[in-house]
Structure formats: C-alpha cells, structure tokens
Amino acid sequence: TNRTFTMIKPDAVEKGHIGGILSMITEAGFRIVALKLTQLTVADAEAFYAVHKERPFYGELVSFMSRGPIVAAILEKDNAVEDFRTLIGATNPSDAAEGTIRKKYATSVGENAVHGSDSDENAAIEGAFHFAGREQF
Ligand code: ATP
User: Coiled coil: which residue ranges (predicted)?
Assistant: First the structure.
C-alpha cells in the first residue's frame, strides 16, 4: 500500500464538483487519509509549480491555482501514484480517456480539475506541505 497527493483545483471547486470527484476517487478504491478545503497563496502556487517557471503558461497557472479554494487530500492504495494518474487522465481533457476525472470535469489544458503527484517522493513532499501528522489517518 502507498500514498499519493491530490488537489481538486479552483475550477472544479467553483463549479460544485467536489462531491462528484471525491466519489470517483473512493469508487476507484482509494482510501482518504487526509482531506481539507484550503487555498494556495500566490507564493504557495509559485513554489508548488516552480518546475514550470520557464514555461509560457507559468503566470497563468499560478494565478489560476491561487484564485480560490482547493481541496487537498492524501490518498492510499496499492500503486497509488500511477493508478491515480490513470484515474485523472491526460493533462489536456481533449486527450483524456473515457471514465477519467478530467474527461468528465476538466475544461481545458490549464483548468483541468485535478492534480495528482507524479512520484512517491513528490507525493510525500506535497502531502507534508498541507497536512500535519495528526491530520493523517
Ligand atoms: P498536475 O501536475 O496538475 O497533476 P500534469 O502532471 O498532468 O498536471 P503538467 O505538465 O505537470 O501536467 O502541468 C502542470 C499543470 O500546468 C497542468 O495540470 C495544467 O494545470 C497546467 N498546464 C500545463 N500545460 C499547460 C498549458 N499549455 N497551458 C496552460 N496551463 C497548462
């Protein structure tokens, strides 16, 4: 068993999709270890996406991710990182497979409803940023 980290991004929260997305996550066999409604500051979003700072969409990405509340969660399942990235689907919803969260809820390549960690190492870093040990069950 291992863990991944996810955010339901501001676009999906604004549109009322928290419940629908959490249902898809739990129906796919992930256990919720930690969960909260929170908001990234501009500085948080800049740091979170620092790997993309030379990309042309960086400014847009930072303002999008900090514009409203997100849901942060730690999820547990065997093969969590890879299986969760399969469940969310391709970055661009027009490439996302049927049955994926982004196919159902994403609007565009930028406003794509959910984040999923890309490695076990990043999952641990991202989860620890949002949740103290006593908030993880
Ligand atoms: P995430 O890291 O959010 O799970 P990902 O790994 O599928 O997404 P990345 O290529 O790491 O995608 O890009 C990170 C995020 O940057 C994307 O989820 C999306 O919100 C945004 N993004 C990526 N490409 C573009 C683009 N061409 N235009 C605008 N925003 C983009």
Answer: none
